[in-house]
Specification:
The chain is mainly alpha-helical and 383 residues long. Helices cover 65% and strands 8% of the residues. Strands 1-2-3 form a three-stranded antiparallel beta sheet. Strand 2 and strand 3 form a beta hairpin. Helix 4 runs parallel beside helix 9 and helix 4 runs antiparallel to helix 11. 33% of the residues are buried.
């Protein structure tokens, strides 16, 4: 099956625009993280995103190679009848690029899932939802393994993936693999969404701040929608066409956006403090709320939104949260500790003047003054 020039040009324009935005997000994220932490202190999700830059770039290149390289072994009967040695060689190369695109797509979106899981682990650290995140992590890992097995066993022999004409239907349609990948991919995305939504609903923040979080999760819904449409255009016979590649790259691109936006938003809150206070009242009656610290309540735990946004951006920001908690504990400890006393021994000597024969008479008065004002003990004597 071939495509016309109008489709090709539109496809290149769209994928280039999507890729440019994704590339800007990834580079902005990595640059800010390196500036803040240094290369050696980058967190695991930063490293996942760094290597994801390679897979995302290869995906962009491979899809455009498929479109502009003369096609693949996805052919009609007419295409097969018109094969020449030149077109056969071109389609073999295109078929290899299709295989590369399938593998890089898996690596791209599963790297994004891994990054989101690291963010969720930071958000739920110490909460009961952490156990759910652990279960989802296991499922996502098993889904990745299952998807890889399906891809490398779907077409036999493996070289059939670039055979022209194809040796079997599976070698050009990837049908069984696409079913397995779609099931694991969509259910994993739904699991991630269901983990994050309860945290969003329990966030006690102004509407403006919550709308930002809702936008991020809304983009997650778009990722799931794009995944479904990609499978429809790639598997449903009446609609099968190269249009599935559009949704293919849209899904990957928005996944990259969703994964990086929380970190970039955390950076924006640090750069523009007014953004962190957006929606909070600043009068004296609510001064304690004016610093942008809303709360998330979970069971007996109560999490401030400042730590939440910090955790979106950095695993090391947990240190700041722990310092805040420790300082509160020290205050409580001092308040409940046994009071320490200040002892002041003051002695006054008074001499009375009399006749020459009169002996001097001295009187001594001692005053003990006890205070609880400071945690220290002092002894002072005055004569």
């Amino acid at each position: 099956m071939s495509t016309d020039a109008a489709f090709n040009n539109a496809f290149r324009a769209e994928t280039t625009a999507l890729y440019a935005v994704g590339l800007a997000f990834i580079l902005t994220r990595l640059a800010s993280r390196v500036r803040k932490l240094g290369v050696l202190r980058l967190t695991p999700d930063d490293w996942f995103m760094a290597q994801n830059l390679l897979w995302y770039t290869l995906l962009y290149v491979s899809l455009n190679k498929v479109i502009f390289g003369g096609g693949s072994n996805f052919m009609t009967d007419e295409d097969i009848a018109n094969l020449t040695p030149e077109t056969t060689a071109t389609r073999i190369a295109g078929s290899k690029w299709v295989l590369v695109s399938e593998e890089t797509m898996v690596l791209t979106i599963w790297s994004c899932k891994a990054c989101m899981l690291f963010i969720y682990r930071r958000l739920t650290q110490g909460l009961k939802q952490l156990k759910i995140v652990n279960y989802v992590t296991i499922y996502v890992g098993l889904g990745f393994i299952g998807t890889q097995i399906a891809l490398f066993t779907n077409c036999r022999p493996f070289s059939g993936y670039w055979s022209v004409p194809p040796v079997t239907t599976q070698c050009w349609s990837y049908f069984n693999y696409e079913v397995v990948e779609g099931c694991f991919n969509i259910t994993a995305d739904l699991s991630l969404l269901f983990v994050g939504l309860p945290l969003l609903f329990k966030a006690r923040v102004p509407l403006q701040q919550k709308l930002i979080l809702m936008t991020i999760f809304g983009m997650g819904v778009f990722v799931i929608t794009a995944a479904v449409l990609c499978k429809i255009y790639g598997l449903y016979a009446p609609l099968i066409s190269y249009s599935y590649l559009n949704w293919f790259f849209r899904e990957a691109s928005v996944s990259v956006y969703v994964t990086n936006i929380p970190v970039i938003y955390s950076l924006l809150r640090e750069t523009f403090p007014k953004l962190a206070r957006w929606g909070y009242r600043t009068n004296s009656g609510s001064a304690s709320r004016s610093n942008g610290n809303g709360r998330i309540r979970s069971g007996t735990k109560d999490i401030g939104m400042k730590p939440v946004f910090n955790r979106l951006g950095s695993g090391t920001d947990e240190n700041e949260d722990s310092l805040e908690t420790q300082s509160q504990e020290h205050i409580i400890q001092y308040k409940n500790a046994d009071p320490l006393k200040i002892h002041k021994d003051i002695t006054f000597s008074v001499q009375h003047a009399g006749s020459d024969d009169e002996d001097l008479e001295a009187g001594r008065m001692q005053q003990d003054d006890t205070s609880h004002s400071t945690p220290a003990t002092t002894y002072a004597t005055a004569r």
